[in-house]
């Protein structure tokens, strides 16, 4: 049986042995039953009587054993007989029996959840949390947690200060495993104030000295979570920080498997609170006989802890690692040197010279890796270390990996003016153009265009050649489109081309490989769990059937993709980050250009950055996947949503308009088009629509409203024949074109659609005013949902009133139509407010400064011609604004105020 | 919680499986085998492997993979700790933990596993409780059992599980009452080429063997408790008392247990007791390399260093080595390229050395990497951190116990880079 042989044929004979007094024989028979009862359920019934009898035995060991074994027999008929004995055992006088029975409830729940609920076992289990015996409490908590995991909605473990107190008392006295269950349960509790948080922390801290590393890590989780609530000025906060370091260090002296899990968690902790381990760099130094998975993790943490104070030591170590045997590890070590250079500015010079030393070793993979990171260093410190280019060029022939080739080509293109034979170098790459990988091809195209712009006279032939190779002979749409753009740029306006292609690039920073803060916060709540090992929220990998309770922050599965693998992030191709986009020509252009249309437009300063971003994206392609990696560059709420999904608004924008838009921007006119876009929200969950999930948002771009939909097929069958219809609504919104889903939507596929809207539909006043009822049909059924649209999509572009008119209208509207609102916590100044609002077609008519207050007079017009006048009072230093709205149709005021709020706060 | 456990030997056979919930098919291990194939060495198999429906968490000890299967979000450390506990228990029961031993004792193994987990929840993991439930096999008992037909399974309730001191059974009786404590310190260090210390830390433990009658309450105090700022205790230690008075106060478990483990990492507290002088050089032109190492004592507080073993993984290009040691014996395995030199005791008057030449592959360029030297040694009657026990007192019982304290320093992961 234990070695995999089937001995089920012996069933009747074994059951006969059951009524023995010999404990060992009894146990073995029980064991046999557990394994084979399922295959012979009818025979298993014969055993029931003995079980029931054993549950009454005077010896508690036998009682517990019987109830425990019965729970393990996964046969429905047996479980029915189990209920009565189990109920008795849950109230048994002996704690050993009670604690066994508590676990048995979880077993029974696994087999037949309904039965457990009907029999009221859950309530009995909750009562056991107040049991006098700590072991019983721990097991009850464990059982409840397990049951709760399969029932995410049910509120089984509702914790209140009293029950928390009981758990804390039990914590001190129960077994190590019980402590883990209790600590994990505590971590789900939210204390009502910082004093409660502190008192829980104080009682949990002794667990940090436990010998069991799982207990330690669970305690760390509780402390990390509750620390958020403590004020940083508190003495206790500092003490706590100090207490956290030694146990974490101790975890690293355990077995390698434990170390690995600990290191993955420390990686999170270091990102969240670097101060805890900042003096402990040395414990992360790699020993040569560490398993490779430990080595790689240690390396990652070393870089995160690197600072000016310890950089010399770190570099010496990294250089040591670069001569090790293991290729993967060496590569990562070389890459780490580059990351250090980018992170600690003072060390850059030393890093570069270390890298040069390594290039001199001529070990092929070391050289390639070094060139890739030197490219990043150039990106961070332009015009500083170009003296090394000559050395790099010497190694041109030995490069055979696409990434290294692409990096080298980028360097040649970027510094073409300093490399005498740049054209020859690039030409040599061009010979085998079609055999190169896409990454290299894209890079080569860009590099040659750069070269041409820098040395137009000598390289005309070369650029012709590469453009025709890219546009005529290539099947890759990405490459072809980029070729066309360059071609047109160069032929229409070389000056503009120069400005676009040779634009100054934003610097890269070390934040690229940090985990996004919201995800990090969520992961901190999952310290010690599988989620923390994978650095993904549980929703991203736990099976669909089992629900997951989200902790503290909503899940962001999509954004985790770009952050989970730091080693690929700096150089991932942008197409990899936008897997859902079908690469037709229009879409790609939309993607290339949407950066300068999409971000919330808030005045000239931001507008220029977005131009840069757009330009860089045009250039960088394979290398500069900036959009995903540099939140601060885009600077705005849009980043919260994954970049690809946030801006599908202008997929419809034709190539021509996109290009002209680009030119407009570069020539400095700075047309601001497009109002603020609310991140997509789920409108129709898959559960309610037989597997079709719809999420979406509304956008307004250059005078046209559209509804951006994302349809996901979560069912198992293909969906076709989509259609959409709106109910009559307050502003007559209606689809301007039918819903076009070109291909059938296969299971797990997602498609993005932008549906143009107009406001000529039939009108009916809705409650609330901005309510929109939508019907979507597909081959399966018709589904209805309703959503609220933000009013600012209805603000038209010609909503600017002239001053005289404004004054007259203001006076003309009766005072009872005036509504006042407070906009709180908005840290912007008058300029920023005004420019941000203008992006969404709220125009500032006049500005006055009265008694140190800024008064903005603004106007806007809705699609149906209603004018709304506003007076916005801003006190410098006070984040609360006062907004007075006057309108002939006062019912819109409330919604206009909401639009203000959304625009200003995002 | 933990669903199933598979034991897999290094050649990839599943030789034992145990399921605590529904049966999980063996085929789930295929994912593990895949990972095992990808990792070149057994040590490098990642401890957490995701599969479409399960997660596999494994530990590798005694050339056996212990693979646990879980299905829901369970703290991985919990599982890994538990697996290590399983291995420790087997070792405790059978002396060694190896495939043949597990196969020979498969009934006991199965019974023990059954007691350790219930539906995936840990049930009894304390060795003294387990031993009360299932007696470990001894030759005598096997003989008696075969004659009388009695069994290894204890028939009384494991009393310890119910009391407030779950780690100790009641009614313990000894004729000789004795308590021994071993302070064992291991030095982990990395020494660089020039002989200066890169990192050094001490992992210390106090292991105890307490055989005392009744319910003794012990207190142990140190001369210099300030050394211990990073400690983890056995659950029996009263934490409050330690916090306030720096005294260990506890009711000990019966038999062998680890009282506490500690960690000293402050650089100035870690003395390095040995040094290694090395001269390993490859030349580009010649196919011969020079090799010379000398080991000597440094800060030993007057104690002798014994049990010295030097091992080093030589680069692949080294075909053979011809060396002469001044003492001890040495071996070089041309297949694994592992050099091992058993030095024995270090005599400060006559330092042991190993000299000779290495023959390299003809024509190959000189190796890129430098070998790292790994050192093992022991120093008796010394705790290198300077930790000293002040006194041990017993309360709660009348008799006078025999007390003993032993100190020892060992090399942990002690590496010298060349």
TrEMBL record, chain A:
Residues 544-585 are annotated as: Disordered. SMART domains: Alpha_adaptinC2, ARM, B2-adapt-app_C. InterPro entries: AP_beta, AP_complex_bsu_1_2_4, ARM-like, ARM-type_fold, Armadillo, B-adaptin_app_sub_C, Clathrin/coatomer_adapt-like_N, Clathrin_a/b/g-adaptin_app_Ig. It is found in: Endomembrane system. Residues 554-571 have a biased composition (Low complexity). Gene3D superfamilies: 2.60.40.1150, Leucine-rich Repeat Variant, TATA-Binding Protein. Residues 795-905 form the Beta-adaptin appendage C-terminal subdomain domain. This is AP complex subunit beta. It comes from Ailuropoda melanoleuca. The lineage of its organism: Eukaryota, Metazoa, Chordata, Craniata, Vertebrata.
TrEMBL record, chain B:
InterPro entries: Adaptor_comp_med_subunit, AP2_Mu_C_sf, AP_mu_sigma_su, Clathrin_mu, Clathrin_mu_CS, Longin-like_dom_sf, MHD. GO terms for cellular component: axon cytoplasm; clathrin adaptor complex; cytoplasmic vesicle membrane; GABA-ergic synapse; glutamatergic synapse; Golgi apparatus; presynapse. It holds the Pfam family Adap_comp_sub. It is found in: Golgi apparatus; Cytoplasmic vesicle membrane. Keywords: Cytoplasmic vesicle, Golgi apparatus, Membrane, Protein transport, Transport. It is a peripheral membrane protein. Residues 176-417 form the MHD domain. The keyword Repeat does not apply. The keyword Membrane applies. One of its GO terms (biological process) is intracellular protein transport. Belongs to the adaptor complexes medium subunit family. This is AP-3 complex subunit mu-2. It comes from Ursus maritimus.
């Amino acid at each position: 049986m234990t070695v995999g042989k089937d001995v089920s044929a012996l069933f009747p004979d074994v059951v006969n042995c059951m009524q023995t007094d010999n404990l060992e024989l009894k146990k073995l028979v029980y064991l046999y039953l557990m394994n084979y009862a399922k295959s012979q359920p009818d025979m298993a019934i014969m055993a029931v009587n003995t079980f029931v009898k054993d549950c009454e035995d005077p010896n508690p060991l036998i009682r517990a054993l019987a109830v425990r074994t019965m729970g393990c027999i996964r046969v429905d008929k047996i479980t029915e007989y189990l209920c009565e004995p189990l109920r008795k055992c849950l109230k048994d006088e002996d704690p050993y029996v009670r604690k066994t029975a508590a676990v048995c409830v979880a077993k029974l729940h696994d087999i037949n959840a309904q039965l457990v609920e009907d029999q009221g076992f859950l309530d009995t289990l909750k009562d056991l949390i107040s049991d006098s015996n700590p072991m019983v409490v721990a097991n009850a908590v464990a059982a409840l947690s397990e049951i709760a995991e399969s029932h995410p909605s049910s509120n089984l473990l509702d914790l209140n200060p009293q029950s928390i107190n009981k758990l804390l008392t039990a914590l001190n006295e129960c077994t190590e495993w019980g402590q883990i269950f209790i600590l994990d349960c505590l971590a789900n509790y939210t204390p009502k104030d910082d004093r409660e948080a502190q008192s829980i922390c104080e009682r949990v801290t002794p667990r940090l000295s436990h010998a069991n590393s799982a207990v330690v890590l669970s305690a760390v989780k509780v402390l990390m979570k509750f620390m958020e609530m403590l004020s940083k000025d508190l003495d206790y906060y500092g003490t706590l920080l100090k207490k956290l370091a030694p146990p974490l260090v101790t975890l690293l002296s355990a077995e390698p498997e434990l170390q690995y899990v600990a290191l993955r968690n420390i990686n999170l902790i270091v990102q969240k609170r670097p101060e805890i381990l900042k003096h402990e760099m040395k414990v992360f130094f790699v020993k040569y006989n560490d398993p490779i998975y430990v080595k790689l993790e240690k390396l990652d943490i070393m870089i995160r802890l690197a600072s000016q104070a310890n950089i010399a030591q770190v570099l010496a170590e990294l250089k040591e690692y670069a001569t090790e045997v293991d290729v993967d590890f060496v590569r990562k070590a070389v890459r780490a040197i580059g990351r250090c250079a980018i992170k600690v500015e003072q060390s850059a010079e030393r890093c570069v010279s270390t890298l040069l030393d390594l290039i001199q070793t001529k070990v092929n993979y070391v050289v390639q890796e070094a060139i890739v990171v030197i490219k990043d260093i150039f990106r961070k410190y332009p015009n500083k270390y170009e003296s090394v280019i000559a050395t790099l060029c010497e190694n041109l022939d030995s490069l055979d990996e696409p990434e290294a080739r692409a990096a080298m080509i980028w360097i040649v293109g970027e510094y073409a003016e300093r490399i005498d034979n740049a054209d020859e170098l690039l030409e040599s790459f061009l010979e085998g153009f079609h055999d190169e990988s896409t990454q290299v091809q894209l890079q080569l195209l860009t590099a040659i265009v750069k070269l041409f712009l820098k040395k137009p006279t000598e390289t005309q032939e070369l650029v012709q050649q590469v453009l025709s190779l890219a546009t005529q002979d290539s099947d890759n749409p990405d490459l072809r489109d980029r070729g066309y753009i360059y071609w047109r740029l160069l032929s229409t306006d070389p000056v503009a081309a120069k400005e676009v292609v040779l634009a100054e690039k934003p610097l890269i920073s070390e934040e690229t490989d940090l985990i996004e803060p919201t995800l990090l916060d969520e992961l901190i709540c999952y310290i010690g769990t599988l989620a923390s090992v994978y650095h993904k929220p549980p929703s991203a990998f736990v099976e669909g059937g089992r629900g997951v309770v989200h902790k503290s922050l909503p899940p962001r599965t999509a954004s985790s993709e770009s952050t989970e693998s730091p080693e690929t992030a700096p150089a991932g191709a942008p197409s990899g980050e936008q897997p859902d986009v079908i690469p037709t020509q229009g879409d790609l252009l939309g993607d290339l250009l949407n950066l300068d249309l999409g971000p919330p437009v808030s005045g000239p300063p931001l507008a220029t950055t977005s131009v840069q971003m757009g330009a860089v994206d045009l250039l960088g392609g394979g290398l500069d996947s900036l959009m995903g990696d540099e939140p601060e560059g885009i600077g705005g709420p849009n980043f919260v949503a994954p970049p690809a999904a946030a801006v599908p608004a202008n997929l419809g924008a034709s190539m021509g308009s996109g290009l002209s838009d680009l030119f407009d921007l570069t020539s400095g006119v700075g047309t601001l088009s497009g109002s603020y876009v609310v991140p997509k929200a789920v409108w129709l969950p898959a559960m309610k629509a037989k597997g079709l999930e719809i999420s979406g948002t509304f956008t307004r771009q250059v005078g046209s409203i559209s509804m951006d939909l994302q349809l996901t097929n979560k069912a198992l069958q293909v969906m076709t024949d989509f259609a959409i219809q709106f109910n009559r609504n307050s502003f007559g919104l209606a689809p301007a074109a039918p819903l076009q889903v070109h291909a059938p939507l296969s299971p797990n596929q997602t498609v993005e659609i932008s549906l143009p809207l107009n406001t000529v539909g039939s009108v009916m006043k809705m409650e609330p005013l901005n309510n929109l009822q939508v019907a979507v049909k597909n081959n399966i059924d018709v589904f209805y949902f309703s959503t609220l649209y933000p009013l600012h999509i209805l603000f038209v572009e010609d909503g600017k009133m002239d001053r005289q008119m404004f004054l007259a209208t203001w006076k003309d509207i009766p005072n009872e139509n005036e509504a006042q609102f407070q906009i709180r916590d908005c840290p912007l100044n008058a300029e920023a407010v005004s420019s941000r609002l203008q992006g969404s077609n709220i125009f500032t008519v006049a500005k006055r400064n009265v008694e140190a207050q800024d008064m903005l007079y603004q106007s806007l017009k809705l699609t149906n011609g209603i004018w709304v006048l506003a007076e916005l009072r801003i006190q410098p230093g006070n984040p609360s604004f006062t907004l007075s709205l006057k309108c002939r149709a006062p019912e819109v005021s409330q919604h206009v105020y909401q639009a203000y709020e959304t625009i200003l706060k995002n | 919680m933990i669903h199933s456990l598979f034991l897999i030997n290094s050649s990839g056979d599943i030789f034992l499986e145990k399921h605590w919930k529904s049966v999980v098919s063996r085929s789930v291990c295929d994912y593990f085998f895949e990972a095992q194939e990808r990792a070149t060495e057994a040590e490098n198999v990642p401890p957490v492997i995701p599969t479409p429906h399960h997660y596999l968490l494994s530990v590798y000890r005694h050339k056996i993979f212990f693979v646990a299967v879980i299905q829901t979000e369970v703290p991985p450390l919990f599982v890994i700790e538990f697996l290590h506990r399983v291995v420790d228990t087997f070792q405790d029961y059978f002396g060694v933990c190896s495939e043949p031993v597990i196969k020979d004792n498969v009934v006991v193994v199965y019974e023990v596993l059954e007691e350790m987990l219930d539906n995936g929840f840990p049930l009894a993991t304390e060795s003294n409780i387990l031993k009360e439930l299932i007696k470990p096999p001894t030759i005598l008992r096997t003989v008696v059992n075969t004659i009388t037909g009695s069994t290894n399974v204890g028939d009384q309730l494991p009393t310890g599980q119910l009391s407030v001191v779950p780690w100790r059974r009641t009614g313990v009786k000894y004729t000789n009452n004795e308590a021994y404590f071993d302070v064992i310190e291991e030095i982990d260090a990395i020494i660089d080429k020039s002989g200066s210390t890169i990192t050094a830390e001490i992992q210390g433990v106090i292991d105890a063997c307490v055989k005392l009658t009744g319910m003794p309450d012990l207190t142990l105090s140190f001369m210099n408790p300030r050394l211990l700022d990073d400690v983890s205790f056995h659950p029996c230690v009263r934490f409050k008392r330690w916090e306030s008075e720096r005294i260990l106060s506890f009711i000990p478990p019966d038999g062998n247990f680890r009282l506490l483990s500690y960690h000293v990492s402050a650089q100035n507290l870690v003395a390095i007791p040995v040094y290694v002088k090395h001269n390993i050089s490859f030349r580009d032109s010649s196919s011969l390399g020079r090799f010379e190492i000398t080991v000597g004592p440094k800060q030993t507080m007057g104690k002798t260093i014994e049990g010295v073993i030097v091992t080093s993984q030589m680069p692949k290009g080294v075909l053979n080595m011809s060396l002469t040691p001044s003492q001890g014996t040495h071996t070089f395995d041309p297949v694994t390229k592992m050099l091992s030199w058993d030095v024995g005791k270090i005599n400060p008057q006559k330092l042991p050395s190993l000299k000779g030449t290495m023959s390299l592959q003809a024509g190959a360029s000189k190796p890129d990497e430098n070998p790292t030297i790994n050192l093992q040694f022991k120093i008796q009657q010394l705790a290198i951190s300077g930790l000293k026990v002040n006194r041990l007192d017993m309360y709660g019982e009348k008799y006078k116990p025999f007390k003993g304290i032993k100190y020892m320093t060992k090399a942990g992961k002690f590496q010298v880079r060349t």
